[in-house]
Amino acid sequence: MGVGGGVESPAYYENVQYMFLNIQNIHAMRAALTKVFEACFPLPDDTRWFKQLADSKWLYHIKQIIFAATSVADKIENHKTSVLIHCSDGWDRTTQVTSLAMLMLDPYYRTIRGFEVLVEKEWCSFGHKFAQRTGGPTDGGIYLPPNSSSSVVNETGGGRPSSPEERSPVFLQFIDCVWQTMQQFPHSFEFNERFLITIMDELYSARFGTFLFNSEMQGRDHGVRERTISLWAYINADIQLYQNPLYTPAEISGHRVIFPQHALAQLQFWTAYYIRWHPLMRLQEPIARRERALILIMKRFRELTAATQRECAKPTLNNVSDNSTHSRSRSNSSKI
């Protein structure tokens, strides 16, 4: 599958089906998010809201990414073929498509721990430039002004902000695509919306070492594992906050592979993230407390179900008695 400028010559690949998926480059995505920002801040204008959202083409870009990932998942699951995903560099659009396709194909990645592994594997380890894409220092780490007396600049980063031309909401688009998929399959994800919002908030907060650098090598050179806390450790320490009370494991639901719809009419604007500070967007009836209650109910239900299954599996007194009688009858018959 060819995406963007990184296209191989067909002469080198016989018997290969080419698919051009038309995912735009980082500059188009940055321009789209800028228009979303203009529509949302300082406050959305009701008279122009839908036009501004349409003009941004944000949901169109989300649609293209979901379409690309479902195409990959379909080739692998239904046609049993191998897929080579190729973009200009391999750390932006390629990563969006591979990680989203894995999320669709493997229910493990739809669990909290599995999603953490997915981000570490496909984004951090494969060299997505988190520092540059989020406006961090060119060498990763933490940016401080030149007059700062802190030694953190020399120890953890280059101290110079990245070029604005390198900024782009690539990872945000992936998280948005995950959220869109969750809306269509609300029982298939162990994590909830708060989990995704927390990841996005901490992406820009620089409180954790998970997203500070442009590559694993930069992080290793600056001792990120020894000197910073992982975002995943923070989340897993209070994991109940991020659990979806409606989650049903794939072995029970039968939804091992999921294929979300990518039609624009099916997609939604993620107001809980993009416009959450608008006073009119506050939930009239907060659901966090209800979610926690449902989680406890579901936990108790699963415990009772497991206990019942164990009880049913035990041999009953009548069965033991019947088996003993049957054995004695066979013994008497053999004596006769």
Automatic annotation (TrEMBL):
Chain positions recorded as substrate binding sites: 25-26, 87-93
Protein name in UniProt: Myotubularin phosphatase domain-containing protein
Source organism, top-level taxon: Eukaryota
Species of provenance: Schistosoma mattheei
GO molecular function: phosphatidylinositol-3,5-bisphosphate 3-phosphatase activity; phosphatidylinositol-3-phosphate phosphatase activity
Domain Myotubularin phosphatase: 1-274
Listed SMART domains: PTPc_motif
Active-site residues, Swiss-Prot/TrEMBL: 87 (phosphocysteine intermediate)
Sequence similarity: Belongs to the protein-tyrosine phosphatase family. Non-receptor class myotubularin subfamily.
Chain spans, region Disordered: 144-167, 315-336
Record-linked InterPro entries: Myotubularin (IPR030564), Myotubularin-like_Pase_dom (IPR010569), Prot-tyrosine_phosphatase-like (IPR029021), Tyr_Pase_AS (IPR016130), Tyr_Pase_cat (IPR003595)
GO cellular component: cytoplasm; membrane
UniProt feature, compositional bias: Low complexity: 321-336
Pfam families linked to this entry: Myotub-related (PF06602)
One GO biological process term: phosphatidylinositol dephosphorylation
Record key words, sorted: Lipid metabolism
Signal peptide: none
PROSITE patterns according to UniProt: PPASE_MYOTUBULARIN (PS51339), TYR_PHOSPHATASE_1 (PS00383)
SUPFAM superfamilies in UniProt: (Phosphotyrosine protein) phosphatases II
